Amino acid sequence: MAEPLDDYIDAVSKALALPIEEAWRPAVRANLEVSLRLGRMVDEFALPDETEPAPIFTA
Amino acid sequence: MTSKPEMTASEIASAVAGGKMSALDATEAALARIRQHDTILNSFTDVTADRARAKARAIDADIAAGKEVGPLAGVPFAVKNLFDVAGLSTRAGSKINRDLAPAKRDATLIERMEAAGAVLVGALNMGEYAYDFTGENVHDGPSRNPHDTTRMTGGSSGGSGSAVGGALVPIALGSDTNGSIRVPSSFCGIFGLKPTYGRLSRARSFPFVASLDHLGPFARSVTDLALAYDVMQGPDADDSACSTMRGLEPTLPLLANPVSDLRIAVAGGHFQKNVFPEAVEAVGRVAKALGATQVVDIPEASRARAAAYVITTTEGASLHLDRLRKRPNDFDPAVRDRLIAGAMVPAPLVDRAQKFRRWYRGQLAEIFKSVDVLLAPATPCTAPKLGQVNFNLDGVELPVRANIGIHTQPISFVGLPVVAVPVPLEPLPIGVQIIAAPWREDIALRVAHTLEKMGVAAAPAPRGL
Fold it and tell me: Apex CA B142: angle with CA B139 and CA B147, to 5°?
């Protein structure tokens, strides 16, 4: 039975031309679930609209 | 005079500069220790013996000619194999990078160490592409803990921890994106410095996460740590993040200053959860020795760890995207599958993680108005067994690999300087993070030096050799 993230994984895999063998899929899915869970944790935190990102770059 | 494994870098440099020991003898002694012990420790992937002997002979010739030599004259050192070493392919723990052309020029930090008289003796094992907290490597085998060779060194600078903890060399260099200097320091019972983000040049080292990558030294004494750090300071146009705003700020002359004027607190909340009793014991010993009774909660530290995770996995995926397309089967499968997942994280979440980083940096800046130093565990536990998959933390079964850095990630996320100090518990040592405000490495080193003088922090002799 297809897992909820499988359609998304297939679509991004195609969009990025990033092949995923079936044998890797469970581990990729498990890692993506962790990344999205932690991403949601960040997303849930309300930030002022004026907040700028932190990376440092000087030309 | 013969070089002994317990000699510190400053003792070797003093003996060499004073004519009591030749740089070549110090170098040969290190090479002999590597030959004797590294078949067990597996910390070195390359030994640059010819280059080291040539450099040592040049130092001895300078001394014979009455020329000035640097503060690290004749001191053997080694580097994590993501540093460019002229003539070697910079493998960064991978199979894929072995196909790269040999580096034409040394990394900036190697050049600065050698300009101070240090002698490079080799390159060190590491977790693949630095995406690792264990020190295990599927291509080169695991680096092994010098206190119990059935245990992890921690990673990703595992060979650096093993080589210094095992007293093969007195100084090694490594990198720290989320904890990769502080974790091996903790498990291998040595001192490690992760400087402020932007302090030391990363030029000609293989990157991982540009937003979070730092380089720094490991040593068995705080004096050696400061000595190496001081000679590596200075702006570098070849690293866009390396600050041009900071001049040289030597720490060695300040080490012996008292710490009685410093406001020292223990980090609470996130940093007092998810810990084994040994981490509680280590932080308690350090806090007691320093008279630190105040507990300061760092707001949203768990969320900071989450944001560091998101930035790491996505920037790492971006770096390796083409290799993931063309040579997926040449990666460590565990690294590959995490990176592929990282490529699939929606962009707004990454942007929000970077914005959260700015907010969180403001919170730490507020805290450092009222304290000078924060104390926190470097790792939740002492070194796990090699291959160990899970541990039980606060009653929850969790994967070891992902959770070893739970207390280091919220600190490097905003680039704060940290000295990891080893607390010599039995049967295994464990580290404590001495965390200071940005650009105040001098304070963290001063506190570490005080703890070392008190005997609370010490690098134990290797017990597994």
Answer: 165
